[in-house]
C-alpha cells in the first residue's frame, strides 16, 4: 500500500473517530500527509498523534463543518501546514433518528447542517486550491440511507441523499478542472455513531456485540462492515487508481442496498 498516496496531502473531517480515524491511518500508511479535522479537538489530536508516531506527516485541526468560517480555516490550516490539498474526505456526520412527523425542526436542521451543509462547506473550502492546481479528488460519506429507504431516519436520509446529488453535480462542474468527486455509501459498520443510533432504537437488548450479530443477518454477505471496508474504498477513490471515476456514489454494504433492507428479517 505504501506508494498509493505518496506525497499527497489529504484533509479528513470526522477524523477523530470511527471511519474517519481509520481512513486517516490508512491514508497515512499509503504515503499521505493527513490533516485530521474534527469538532472534538482531543479526538483529532489523538488520530494525528498516532499517525505522527507511525512516522507519517499529520496535523490536527478543530472544525465544526457546519460553520462556514471554521471550514475555511480548516483548508487554510492545511495549506499553511503542507502547501497544497490533493484530496478531501468529507466524512464528518451525526446520527439522525426520527420519522418526518416525529422530528423537531431543530433536530432536522442540525442533521442537515452537519451531514449535508458540512459536506458542501468542506468541499467549497478546498476547491479553489484544487482548481488552481488542476487536480484533486473529493470523497464524501453518504450512506445506504442515501440510496434506499431505511426506516425512521428522515433527516439523515434527506442529508445523505443530498450528498449523492451534490457529488454528481460537483463532478460535472469540476471535471474540466481535473477534480473528481465521489461518495461512499456504507452499510452498518460498528462505530460510536451506530451504537448511539441503536441505543435510540432500543436495538441493544444486552451486549452491543449481540446487537451487531443480529444486524449481520440483514446483509447478504452475512456480516456487518469493517472500518477497512470503508477506508480501502475511500483510499481507492482518493488515489489515481480511480482516475476515470467521478460522480459516483458507491455502496459498500455487503449487498444490502441491492437485495433490500429487510433481508434476513
Ligand atoms: N458507521 C456506519 O455504519 C455508517 C453508515 C453509513 C454512513 N456513515 C457515515 O460515516 C460517517 C462517519 O461516521 P462514523 O460511523 O465513523 O461515526 P463516529 O461517530 O465514529 O465518527 C464521526 C466523527 O465526526 C465528528 N463530528 C461530528 N459532528 C461534527 C461536526 N459538526 N464537525 C466536525 N466533526 C464532527 C465526531 O466528533 C466524530 O469524531 C458519518 O458521515 C456517518 O453518517 C456511517
Spell out the key features of this protein.
globular, seven-stranded parallel sheet, Rossmann fold, 265 residues, alpha/beta, binds nicotinamide-adenine-dinucleotide, 14% strand
What strand order characterises the main sheet? Answer: 3-2-1-4-5-6-7
CATH fold name of the largest domain, please? Answer: Rossmann fold
Structural class: alpha/beta
Please tally the helical runs, counting DSSP H or I stretches of 4 or more residues.
9
Structure description:
By secondary structure, the protein is of the alpha/beta class. It has helices spanning 18-29, 41-53, 68-82, 105-133, 154-174, 192-200, 208-216, 227-238, 256-259, and strands at residues 9-13, 33-38, 58-62, 87-90, 136-141, 179-186, 249-252. It has two domains: 9-187 and 227-250, Rossmann fold, CATH 3.40.50; 188-224, no CATH class. 47% of the residues lie in helices and 14% in strands. A seven-stranded parallel β-sheet has the order 3-2-1-4-5-6-7, sandwiched between helices. Strand 1, helix 1 (18-29) and strand 2 (33-38) form a beta-alpha-beta unit. The protein is globular. The structure holds nicotinamide-adenine-dinucleotide. Nicotinamide-adenine-dinucleotide binds at residues 13-14, 16-20, 38-40, 43, 63-66, 91-94, 114, 118, 141, 143, 186, 188-189, 191-194.
